[in-house]
Write a structure and sequence with these properties.
mainly alpha, 3-stranded antiparallel sheet, 3 strands, about 65% helix, WH-like_DNA-bd_sf
């Protein structure tokens, strides 16, 4: 999933170097996203620079190598604005591994196989839902992170509803 626009949004707040951006990103999106690979971040910054959305300068440090500081350009401001005001379709559409497993399980002709697939997925989703709810209840989390965790929980709940639909249609 591309993160270049998130990086631009962080740079909107002011110039920053790679490790500051990594820390700000992880703080902004919370634990559900996971750690941001610093190597990937530098690839994104290189691409943004090549596309003219950021520029950079070197800052000398006494003991460490020079630090590269990135700034958003006017073109980067326009790109970020365009991205924020455009709709966001589902990233993977409806190509989902679970859907394929349900298709494969039903093609076996064995209701037990379908039931096993649904049970394994339900157990996984319930663990995920408990984890999301625990993370969301942490009062130290920023409001926007709690909202993103709530949205993730709703997606998991929708997947659980899908499992109920499959069960009702195929196993009743």
């Amino acid at each position: 999933m591309p993160i270049q626009h998130a990086v631009l949004a962080l740079l909107r707040e002011g110039p920053s170097h790679g490790y500051e951006l990594k820390s700000a990103f992880e703080s902004a999106v919370g634990p559900q996203w996971g750690a941001l690979n610093i190597g990937h971040l530098y690839q994104v910054l290189e691409r943004l620079s090549r596309d003219g959305f950021v520029d950079s300068s070197r800052m000398a440090q006494e003991v460490k190598p020079d630090r590269v500081v990135y700034r958003m350009t006017d073109a980067g401001q326009r790109e970020l604005g365009d991205w924020m005001t455009s709709p966001s379709p589902r990233t993977a559409g409806f190509r989902d591994d679970l859907f394929l497993k349900v298709v494969a399980a039903t093609r076996t002709g064995d209701p037990g196989t379908v039931s096993d697939v649904l049970a394994a997925q339900r157990a996984h989703l319930l663990r995920e839902l408990r984890n999301l709810e625990t993370l969301r209840r942490d009062p130290a989390r920023e409001t926007v992170v709690r909202l993103l965790l709530a949205a993730a929980a709703r997606h998991v709940t929708a997947d659980l509803t899908f499992l109920e639909d499959v069960e009702a249609e195929l196993l009743s």
